[in-house]
Design goal:
Arc Repressor Mutant, subunit A, 337 residues, three-stranded parallel beta sheet, alpha/beta, 46% helix
């Protein structure tokens, strides 16, 4: 179990990342290659990623360099996910390249004690070897992360909007209690019962950076060195892939039309216009037309944050969807996005 201890000052200094952290997403995405857990949530990405890596000639880089450095175990080196990555991929990779030699030596030595590592890992304290690693990380990101950046960014902005609502309605502690099913808040401690080792982190006024992650699955991750700026990488919600409409949903299709019903269904967990379009299999312009009609009918709410519009169900919309599912009697509140 991981226990993170807050003071009043830490609560005031806790914030949510403003953009995806590319190096943390690289790390979490590499973990997706090492387990079948949650594969359904990333099925399309996994299939296309394997093809793109093969076409780009990065298969050997993946197996020989990246996977050994990011094992899905209790530890991988902290210098691979520096704080500077919050400013973008270039800033993060520059920090990896400039990591202090002593830090790299200590962390790669710990990695070798945790899991068998290739001999070249011990040479990462050499700048030239780290340069090769930085190039591999850049190539991997360009090949399998960058094509999905817009979608990942939209999901993170929707998560920030969700937290903003929790903050306004329930305060900081309410927001901390609503991060993910595997995280629980028991004042003044944030607990992660599924963490692979027993640890206590005392923030001591430093605050906590919450980093929602598209590729993180179920179990949150934090840095191993308690002296570094405290962060928690935690998973975004993933809705199951859409399946063929059940017979019980046909009346809803008859009422709204198949496409508009699909757009409404997409808003159960919260969706941007682009996400709703993707799930309904239509263009963004078409989805915009349908979300406007659903909003005017009082079935969804639409909230703008910067250049992202997040659509969520109203109680009326939730009741309509619940009524279309005879196996779930009565209206219910949909799960949080």
């Amino acid at each position: 179990m991981l226990r993170i201890h807050f003071t009043a000052g830490d609560l005031a200094r806790t914030r949510v990342a403003t953009a995806p952290h590319p190096l943390w997403e690289i790390a979490a995405s590499l973990h997706r290659f090492q387990t079948r857990e949650g594969r359904w949530a990333y099925a399309h990405w996994y299939r296309t990623a394997r093809v793109r890596l093969r076409e780009a000639g990065l298969d050997r880089v993946l197996r020989g360099m990246l996977l050994p450095l990011f094992p899905r175990t209790s530890y991988f080196p902290d210098f691979l996910t520096p704080t500077e990555g919050a400013e973008g991929l270039d800033a993060g990779l520059h920090a990896v390249l400039a990591a202090p030699r002593r830090q790299v030596t200590l962390e790669t030595t710990r990695l070798a004690r945790t899991i068998p590592s290739p001999r070249w890992v011990s040479r990462l304290n050499e700048r030239d070897m780290r340069g090769r690693l930085v190039q591999a990380l850049r190539d991997y990101h360009r090949t399998v992360i960058a094509p999905h950046e817009d979608h990942i960014g939209e999901r993170l902005q929707a998560e920030r909007i969700r937290h903003a609502r929790s903050l306004l309605d329930l305060g900081v502690e309410g927001m901390l209690g609503d991060l993910a099913p595997t995280i629980r808040w028991r004042h003044p401690v944030l607990e992660i019962p599924t963490y692979p080792e027993r640890r206590d982190i005392h923030l001591d006024g430093r605050g906590l950076l919450l980093i929602p992650s598209y590729f993180c699955w179920q179990d949150p991750i934090t840095l191993a060195d308690p002296r570094l700026r405290p962060v928690i990488l935690y998973p975004l919600h993933h809705a199951p892939a859409a399946s063929a409409p059940a017979a019980g949903r046909q009346p809803l299709h008859a009422l709204l039309g198949r496409t508009r019903a699909a757009v409404l269904q997409a808003t159960v967990t919260g969706a941007s216009t682009t996400e709703a379009a993707r799930r309904a299999g239509v263009s963004t312009a078409t989805a915009t037309h349908h979300t406007a009609a659903l909003r005017e009918a009082g079935l969804i709410n639409s909230d703008r944050h910067a250049n992202i519009v997040l659509h969520t169900l109203t109680p009326l919309g939730a009741a309509l969807l619940a009524g279309a599912r005879p196996d779930r009697p009565g209206p219910r509140q949909p799960p949080a996005p």
